[in-house]
Amino acid sequence: MADMKALARDLHAKREEMKDFFSKNKVDGELKLTTEQIVEVNQRETELKGLQEKYVEAKSLFEIEQKNEQELAGLTAPGARPQFGGSKSAAREISSKSIGEQFIESAAYKSINGRKGPTSEIEGADYKALLTGLDYKTVMQDNQSSGAGYAPQSVRSGRLVYSPQPQPTLIDLVPTGETDQSVYKYMEETVYTNAAAETAEAALSPEAALKYDERSVNVVKIPVFIPITEEQLADVGGLRDTVDNRLGLMIKQRLNGQIVVGDGTGSNMLGLLNKPNILTQNKGTDVVPDCIYKAMVKVMTQGFADPSGIWMNPLDWQNVRLLKTTTGQYLYGDPSQQGPNTIFGLPVAQHVNVTLGNAPVVDFATYTSLIFRNGIEFSVSDSHADFFARGQLAIRAMIRAAWVMYRAQAICVAQGL
């Protein structure tokens, strides 16, 4: 405290000297200083800055000392008792920490090192029994209820570990669109007769032919719900968000599988591998990248499309990633490197939904689309069965979408991988 006061006096005196210095060197209200005086001002300012820093440090130490003394006084002071005759708010205002809280927050308790350490004395405590006797582990293991030992509370952390689930990665390569109808319709050119030819003077021009047919793809509904009690929804923080996320993932997983292997019957989508008239390329004796490239060429020369991506099962991609030269070098990068997830420049989306041994090479960008009637919608209701009487709720997630593959020949499946 004495040092802080001395520093404050010195700081004040130096500032007064600086003030007088400036006053003496003003001419007609303007400060006029020589080069030597400017150097002197800079020196004085440096000295002032040093004193200011020392004063701030001393003041901070003093405040910490004062706070420490106040907290120590609070630990040894008797706890105030609530006035039962007063209001509830008044009782809350004068209530103090319990004896147990005071003990575990005391500096003595926190400084215990080893089996025995400093003691913390709390005044005003009237103990009826000493907390000793049967060890809590013995109580728990032997299912005994005697003894004064008390098992410490074991509080669960806030971490939730989800079960392992495949992520819907295939739809990442597919462009999306929107519709406000229950059926998505488009026109397809089914006849294209190019009769263009060189003709003689005054001869008839060849007649071409074009025909267009309407195509329809039904918008499919994919819903899922989970029951939950009102208490769980109200009492467990973040549970609604967790449920929403998992239900949303369930829908995306189903959609991810449908666009690959859906059989097109009933309410099912028609999956890409089941679409009629798609192109195929058998691997035979080729290595996988050679087979993939031949499939790319078929898309370009027979479907007259530009392939933009590949779907593969992770086990099939494994065979590509582990390809080696005759000298043992990895073609897709050293094991210490991530390596490219591409084949001949096309991105590869891996998923277990892709049938093993098949790798569709597709012009996704131009000739496929996921058309959404609505995105994933969530709703909560107690109108299911006897949920209202039981205090239960149903959280439902739903999506409506159509999977459109405009041109079959824009798809070539590399087979036998």
Automatic annotation (TrEMBL):
It comes from Capsulimonas corticalis. It comes from the Bacteria. This is Phage capsid protein. Transmembrane segments: none annotated. Its main location: virion. It is found in: Virion. InterPro entries: Phage_capsid (IPR024455), Phage_capsid-like_C (IPR054612). Residues 156-415 form the Phage capsid-like C-terminal domain.
